[in-house]
Amino acid sequence: MSSIKVIIADDHQLFREGLISLLSKSGSLEIVAEAESGDQLLDLLKTTTAHVVLIDISMPGTNGLEVIRQARELYPDLKFIVLTMHAEGQYVVKAVKSGAFGYLVKNADENELLAAINEVAIGKKYFNSEISELMITNMAIEEEAHKKLSERETEVLNLVSEGKTTKEIAAQLFVSARTVETHRVNMMKKLNVQNTAELIKRAAHLKLI
Amino acid sequence: MSSIKVIIADDHQLFREGLISLLSKSGSLEIVAEAESGDQLLDLLKTTTAHVVLIDISMPGTNGLEVIRQARELYPDLKFIVLTMHAEGQYVVKAVKSGAFGYLVKNADENELLAAINEVAIGKKYFNSEISELMITNMAIEEEAHKKLSERETEVLNLVSEGKTTKEIAAQLFVSARTVETHRVNMMKKLNVQNTAELIKRAAHLKLI
DNA sequence: TCAACCCTCCGTAAAAATCCTGAGGGCTAT
DNA sequence: ATAGCCCTCAGGATTTTTACGGAGGGTTGA
After folding, report:
1. Which of A119, B8, B9, B119 could make an S-S bridge to B55, C-beta 3.0–4.6 Å?
2. B177, B207 in Cβ contact below 8 A?
3. Residue with nearest Cα to nucleotide C8 C1'
């Protein structure tokens, strides 16, 4: 292969510039474009071809993982390496499910990044042992926590967390107080907690509210 | 001034490497050291002198802002520029109070970073208008939220967030249920919320639990 | 079509939280 | 020593949540 064409998608300009500066020193690859949001990436993919995209998960607008899903339908040969701060299993699992070919945390070093790019570019997957472990550990948890909240439930949860009372919520949603209570009870069962306090805590930690 | 000596403290190796690569291209400064944690920074300051430290807030071990406080007592001439992802007013305010001379979000560009380093190195402060605005906006809020929770209150809050009931908490802490209620009420007043649900949410967001 | 959700609704009763208001002793910093 | 917190405790009234245990109609995917 001549030189690997790479696109960088990250909302932090300094990080992008740093990466570009770093990767430019390597002769085997070429940075053909950069994007500061998922939407911008999808846009520039219409006109730019590349082999590998380094992408951050958390970006303004469309989520990085969602971008991967969309892009892989349109450009099946394009390979994505997720490059993120999040060293949590749940993110790794989601990234894999979204179709990422590699996953690196931002405290990886230059050599690892180059290795990952080279591996992924030839169609291999790159997940180091640390990441693989996170993924496995998370699978079990994932099984338990797979029961997601429905849209309506999330709506109620948000109002509850704002300190609104069941009656107020019922009035606002034009349903009976009973319904609101049912939603709350169902959420508590799903998240396996005993009362509202714990529910809010879990929801907050799961970034649901 | 000959060349500005800079230390980089950030727990993400790729970010450090990127920054080094980026800043090396400028002739007016020299990167003399790097640290991947606050404690490591404090350690290397014992043997290394520098003019400016670029520091991230969120690092393992001692918090970046706490590091600044400690370091400024020992090395009053050392200037800190906070370089972070957090574009929230509360962080800016805390950084200023901790004695930071500059504050940049990681999506600043290379020119801004160089400008900030040069300004700060000669003893000036560097906060661009966006950051200043955040700070001002936050001052009012800060005034209200300055009432911190006491140790006992935090203890109660933790138990509440675990779904424990007032009675259970009272039993566990060997005090009356009344006392626990009082603590809760006081916390709600301090955090300016209406009920437990909102209390937990605020506490979770403030990283208190 | 049938299972599996989702959203809606209910009666009753016990348990818990919230709202009033008030207070005494201890510690600390000015 | 005086103000200002912290921690402790309370009676009584009101409001809210939680625990029981259903149930019917709608959508969706295997």
Report:
1. B9
2. no
3. A179
A76 versus A199: which is more confidently predicted?
A: A199
Q: Write phi, then psi, for A44 (nearest 5 degrees).
A: -75, -20
Statement: residue B6 has pLDDT above 80: yes
Please give the pLDDT value at position A206: 65
CA distances from B155 to B42, B184, B203 (A): 31, 11, 12
Element spanning B55, H or E: strand B52-55
Under DSSP, is residue B152 helix (H, G, I), strand (E, B) or coil? helix
Integer Cα distance of A84 and A113 in angstroms: 12
Give the integer Cα–Cα distance in Å for B156 and A130: 37
Give the distance from residue B85's alpha carbon to the nearest chain A alpha carbon, in angstroms. 8
Question: Which chain A residues are Cβ-neighbours of B25 within 8 angstroms?
Answer: 21
Q: Nearest-CA neighbor of A104 among A31, A15, A39?
A: A15
Question: Can you tell me the distance from the alpha carbon of A94 to that of A134, in angstroms, rounded to the nearest whole number?
Answer: 12
Residue B64 falls in which region: left (phi positive, over 0), alpha (psi -120 to 50) or beta: alpha
Cβ neighbours of A205 (radius 10 Å): 12
Contacts of residue B202, defined as CB under 8 A and 6 or more positions apart, other chains included, come to: B191, B193
Whether A14 sits inside 8 A of B21 (CB atoms) is no
Cα–Cα distances in angstroms (integers) from residue B50 to residues A138, A172, B70, B103, in the given order: 43, 59, 16, 18
Strand C contact nucleotides, protein CB < 7 Å: 5-11, 15-19, 22-23
Which phi-psi region, left, alpha or beta, contains residue A206 (left: φ > 0; alpha: ψ -120 to 50)? alpha
**Dihedrals phi, psi of A165, to nearest 5 degrees:** -90, 160
pLDDT of residue B60 exceeding 90, the answer is no
Q: How far apart are CA A72 and CA A54, in angstroms?
A: 14
Distances (CA, A) of A70 to A62, A64, B75: 10, 10, 52
Residue type, A197: A
Please report which confidence band the pLDDT of residue A143 belongs to, taking 50, 70 and 90 as the band edges. Answer: very low
pLDDT score at B107: 80
Tell me the nt nearest to B169, Cα to C1': C16
Q: Please, which residues bridge with residue B83 across strands?
A: B104
A101, two tokens: 């070919």
Tokens of A120: 């992924």
Structure tokens, A205: 């930690």
CA neighbor of B197 nearest in space, from A197, A111, A99:
A197
pLDDT of residue A140: 38
